[in-house]
Structure formats: C-alpha cells, structure tokens
Amino acid sequence: EKQELRGLMADIAFAFISECQFHEGIINFSESEADPRDLLLLFPELFPNNDINSKYDSKYRPRKEDKIQQIVRKYLVQYKKETTEESISKHVEKAEESVMLYLQRWRETNKISQESNTKLHKVVDDALFMLYIKHKKIPELENLIAADSLISLSTNEVVLKNHQMYHALALLYCKHKMNEYALQVWLSMAKGEFKDISEKQGYNEMIEFLQSCPEDRLIWTYSKFVLESKHQNALAIFTQTKREPFKPDQVLEHLANHQQEYTIQYLEYLVTVQKIPEEKYHTRLGRVYLDRVLQSQETIEIFPVLSRQLGLIGSNEEDESKIAHKANLSVSRSRVVGLKFNNIFSLPRSKLLLFLNDSKHYDAADLLAQVHGTSLYEESVFLYSKLGNHTEALCVLSWILKDENWAQYYCNNQTGDKTEKPEEPSKLFLILLDVYLLKITMPNIKNVPPKPMEDEAKRLLEMKGKEMDPAKVLQALPGNASLSFISSFLLKAIPYHQSKMREASIMKNLSKAELMNQKIELMKARSVMISIPTNKICGVCQKPMGNTVFAAYPNGVTVHYKCLTNKSICPVTGVVFSEEY
To answer: What is the SS3 assignment for 149-205?
Structure first.
C-alpha cells in the first residue's frame, strides 16, 4: 500500500508539472520519496556527457520524448498562451529553480552509504553543478564543490573554463588534491590572465589556501608572489595559519627578501600577539624601529609643534620662556599619563618609545650603543632604566629634557620587573636631588647645567621631601642653603618620619607579641603527654607497639617510629595535616 501511495504521489507530481505548476509538483514528488532521477529525466541537458536516459529506466510517467521544454510548449499551446522562446525559457527557468531547491534538500537529508547510493549522489551532484552554472549561483556552486560532493574533474574542467568560473575550477583542483594547479589558476587571476565571473582577484583566495596548505614547498613558492604584490593581507599566510606554524627564524629569513615592512609586522606579531619572550626577537624589533628613526634623520622640535597645537604662537611680544614652560608641562603630561607619544612624536618614534616602555625582553645594552651620540634622549631614558642605570636616566631627564614631572614619575616606578635593578622611590629621589645640585658627574652626558638647579631642587623637596631621609638630605644641600628653606623642609620631614618610626615601632611590638604567643602554643603542644598500652597495634605494620619509640598523629593514630613515612599525612586515614601541627 505504501508503494502504491508513493506511486500515486509521483503521478500527481508529474500531473502538476504538466500544468506548469512546478512548486506543487515538486512538493508532491518530494513526499513520494521517488528516485530523483525520475524527475531529472525531464532535464537531459543537465547531463551533456552522460545520457541519463540510457542508464536509468523510470517507473513513472516520464517518457523519453517527455522533456521539460516539450511539456511547457504543450501547456502553452493547450491554453492558447504565447509560445515564444522567451516565454518557454521563463517557464523552464522556474521549473529548474524548483528542481534546484528539491535537490538541495535531498542532499541535506540523504548521505552516501553504499555503492548504489554513491551513483545516485553523483547524478544529483552533477545536476546541481549544471543548474548552479546555468543560473550563475556562484556561492552555491563553490560550496557544492568544496563540500563532500562527487563532482568529477575530467568532465567539468572545460565547463568551468568556458563559463569563466576560474575560482570554482581552482576549488575543484583542490578537491582532487591538485593543489599546485589550483594555485596556478589563482595566480593567473591575480596577474589578470584569467578574469573570473565573480570578479575575484585571486590574491585573497591564494592567501586563504596557503594558510592551511599541507605542502611547505607550495607555501614558500607561492607566498613570494603574494608578498611581491604588496597585498595588505599577504602576511596573514604566516600570522593566521591554520596548520602547524613555521619556525619564526624560517619565516624571517623568507621575509628578508621582500620589503622591510613585512619583517617589522611579523616581529610585531611575535612580540605583541604571540608574546614570545625570546630576547633575540624583541631586540631585533627594537633595532628595526631604531634604524627607521635614525634613517629618517628626524629633527625633534617639540616646542613649535606643541605651540601650534596649544595656540601659543601668534604674539611676538609673548615671553618665550613662558611658552617653553607651558609646552614642557604638556609634554610631561603626555609622557607620564599613559605614555601617549603620538601627539608629540612621529609614528616611527612613537612606536619605538612604546616598545621600549612595554617590552622587558630586549637587550638594552645593544640598543643603547646605537642610541649613544644621537638626540634620542627619551629612548635613552628607557634603556638606562632597563639596565638599572638610574643615575644616568635621571641626569638625562633633568639636565637635557628638563622634565620634572617625568623625573618624579620615573622615581616612583622603578620597583617592577622592567628594570634589572629595582630601587625604592626614596633612594631615587635622593639621587635626583644630587643631580639637581650637580653633586654627580657624568662624563658621557653632555649639556650639564652651568650651575645647580636650585629651583627644581626646592620644588622636589616641597613635593617629595618628606619621603626622603632628612639626614641625607641635609648632607646633600649646599652650605649656603637658606635657613628658612631648611626649616620649611624639616617641619614637613621630621613629623612624617617620626610618624613612620612610631608605626614601625608599633608593628615591631605587635610582631613580638605574636611571636611570643606562637612560642607559648608550641610549648603547650610539646608538653602534652601521650601514653599508650604496650599491646596497642601499630596502624601501619599491625604489630604491637611494645616499648619501642612511637609517633602519634593529631587524629590519634599511632605508629612505630620506623613506620613513620610522612609527618604531614596520616598513613591510615590519608588525612593531610597543616604545618602548624
């Protein structure tokens, strides 16, 4: 009965199709669960290289002479409608679109399971392939080829070329493991030798394929063409790979044959994205940044730039020293707050400064050798800091850059892991005071002020003096320092240090009390007597304890001393005891 019902549904489907009601016909055909070839017999043009009529005999209504064009023509004649080629083509197109939807759903619900099923799947795939080409369904065609389809290469290679569907042809080559043929097609598209109907250019397709290409030779060979084209996503071949990545040294050697920008971008990828801690990559990136800045022969003229930004230029009568002071404060804020250099320096220098500030894996001595003798003073501050040469850094900040804000910021932020010699702020503030008062000599640093920077020293003591050791400050101050200034400093510093001493004394006494309590607890624990009968059984060896030395755990378990393996873990219950026991 089910078979008869299915046959009836199929007949109804073909009846609808004969009346050009394709949507209703396809619905009934789908419900009949008939073989798709029964429907495809109406469309022999979908199989130019395979005569479906000679290989499949339908059980239902279609005959060899019943083709979709004839069915449409009969319908139009019967109902006295226009029978032009255009009218017939429109009806045939609607029929093909309905068949296309049916075949798509059929592929989704039917999987390849056996040989006979494979043959049927190939017929369906071939039909969809031709339908997609005829109706220019490019995305659907490419998805069909890339999916688990049975599209053959030998019969369809020429078809795709004739329709200028070169990207689909490359995908078909990939499907049949002919990767180099696919890359040659994409390369021809990129060179303009092939013009794809979808207007794809070839480079993006090459990049996407090379990201997952299993053959190293093809990646090294064809990535050259992409890199030479200066395509904006060329480096994605190596930075967004979907296979086992190459060793960084291999990639860098390969990129060295192309424009330097690729090397920089790849090093930035290693340092900032991969976060590789190897010093050689960080140092190399620092060298590249530094070379770019030095090659540009950049002349740093900060005040004119900032003056224009701040609206300070325009009056010849304005005091230049005030302009410089205001501009310098702006520079300091930009340097200190978030270290945003982009508004002050060019992009290459900004990148270099941010790199020197953020990275902690580069060879500072190597980079400092390149910076020495140049006007890259800001860079030298970071490098001195990395090496722990705090005195040199503070000399540059104070004598050359004359940046009080950054100098104080520097003193407060040398306790982390970005410097080889962390120092407490109070010690660095004392060094900064000596720098201001010229009590430090640095032969390798030029531009030493002709006289002590007393105003800066006074401002430092007013802001940070209470954090310094008063005795050392008094030793550093010159003999001609005014009594009013010294008294002002002492009135702030002495109460602060007395308060700190009281706090330290209180903490010390509290620690002593805590230590005494711990000793009392220990004495109590050691004075506890544990007695056991001689016939008590050892928890480990299950032998009597006798008069031998024994050990007792806090939970009451007793064992022979020779059976004691771990004082922190009970051998019977497995309970772990904390160190306080």
So the answer is: CCCCCCCCHHHHHHCCCHHHHHHHHHHCCCHHHHHHHHHHHHHCCCCCCCCCCCHHH
Residues 6 or more apart whose CB falls under 8 angstroms from that of 90 comprise none
Chain centroid to Cα 265, Å, comes to: 13
The Cβ-side half-sphere exposure at 84, using a 13 Å CA radius, reads 4
Contact 517, 544 (CB under 8 A): no
State pLDDT tens for residues 459-495. 888 888 888 888 888 888 877 777 777 777 777 777 8
| Cα–Cα distance for residue pair 325/386, rounded to 1 Å | 29
Residues in the chain: 581
First CA to last CA across the chain, in angstroms?
Answer: 84
pLDDT at 320 over 50: no
Torsion of CA 130, 134, 139, 144, to 10 degrees: -10
- Nearest alpha-carbon partner for 396 in 367, 454, 359, 435: 435
**Residue 313 predicted with pLDDT over 50:** no
- What whole-number distance in Å separates Cα of residue 40 and Cα of residue 14? 12
* Cβ atoms within 10 Å of 388's Cβ, excluding its own: 16
Among 358, 374, 373, smallest CA distance to 298 is for: 374
